[in-house]
Hints:
This is Pantothenate kinase. It comes from Leucocoprinus leucothites. The protein has helices at 137-140, 143-148, 167-185, 189-195, 204-207, 209-216, 225-236, 248-255, 320-330, 336-344, 355-359, 392-417, 434-448, 463-470, and strands at 9-11, 20-21, 35-37, 47-51, 55-63, 155-163, 197-201, 219-222, 243-246, 278-280, 290-295, 299-304, 310-316, 353-354, 373-375, 422-426, 453-457, 471-473. By secondary structure, it is α+β, with helices and mostly antiparallel strands. Strands 2-3-6-5-4-7-8 form a 7-stranded mixed beta sheet, sandwiched between helices. A 7-stranded mixed beta sheet has the order 10-9-17-16-11-12-13, with helices on both faces. Helix 3 (167-185) crosses helix 4. The radius of gyration is 24 Å and the shape is globular.
Amino acid sequence: MSTPYLPSAKVIHVDTRGAVILSEESPETRDSRGIYLPNYIEPVSHIAVDIGGSLAKVVYFTRSPEPPSSPSVAATRGSSTASDISTPRSLSPSDEPTNAPPSISTPSNNTRLNGALTPLVLDTQSSLGNGLLGLNDGLLRDTALRRTAQHFPGGSLNFERFETDSIDACVEFIQELIERSAQINGVSIEEMRKGVKIMATGGGAHKFYELFKEQLRVEVRREDEMECLIEGLKFITLIPDEAYYFSDELIQSVAHPQLQPPNEVLERPSPDPPKYSVSFESNPTPQLPCLLVNIGSGVSIIKVDENGNFERVSGTSLGGGTLWGLLSLLTPARTFDEMLDLSERGDNSTVDMLVGDIYGQDYSKLGLKSTMIASTFGKVFKKGGEKKTFSPEDISKSLLYAVSNNIGQIAYMNAEKYNLERIYFGGCFIRGHAATIATLSYAIRFWSKGTKRALFLRHEGFLGSIGAWIRNIDHEGGSGST
Length: 482
């Protein structure tokens, strides 16, 4: 008996020209801002989900002629002032490629597609007059047809995250998205399900496979976690203003706020980088080879060569789950964001033993500042003394520094071993948090003596789900799931 044909995943081609990261409305969604892709015209309806040990991350694409005003439909809950490091700069017309298509105008007969999944199965017509949904992949990739079809709307790549312990909420969200898309497209839910697929990655893609398949009643496809991470990295680093780094002065001011300029700083990585600022890569190009340090519940360190081939070369079990778990035991905080808020108000010098506590000054011979941590939690235990009480804020700052410094040093050692200068940090551990970014940046700059740079991503927690979204299912020759 012959083995049934199972379709293999292929990489879809996403037109990133003119891509814009949408403004945020709440600090809670700073890692979930949508990306508007005005020139992406191919029909796509699959939903990607990356299920890790702590968080499940969802990525999906919806059509819209104009960028929506919020990062996503469900993620925006109230508004507040956006943080300086997570608000994108406004793109001027001069920033757009000279060969970019004209501005978008939406035909009235395509308004039903706005804000919804758009499966190819919903429209079998093959003429331009009936919309892009009926065009097959071969036609869509034809250059002449692309030029003809420029007036059709692009859409937004949307991002959501859920705690894995509440995976039912994730399933419910996807179910509501499918139902809403069926209603907007004017078809039955049964017809909608025929064109929707779930591309799942991460450990939970195996653990919760049956749950997604039975509850959603759509095709579910499991994709390799590491492959998705690298595909996501290659894609997201081509989005303008996605990758960023801290200037040396900003690293110093965040990591050591008690020190006032002018102070000695590390050797600068370029002749004239901006001071006290976040620097965005506004005109991105592929940046390979590199090292990817993905910080989730644990940490994976992946070496990527100039051709995009990759190898997991190291890692550590001391990651976001470690910080989350210990702070759950030691503080009243119950969410990761609450823990980050506590750390922002903390003073780790009440808990940590510093170089100055031991030497009374800098240890200049070894290049150690008096403010450098010599022993994490070193002041907590005093032999023969009374047990002291430490504030949740100070404990949070100390543990944040401990985990971040450990990851930074391991990342540096691997970058040095493989002679890689660019080190990307990803994963939901970072969450755009200034102290975390400064600590990782400082560790890389200190140990490498300024020869290597730590780079960060505004959608750092979604690399795996983005990579899974990019991997579509090729149905040539048959159908099925794995």
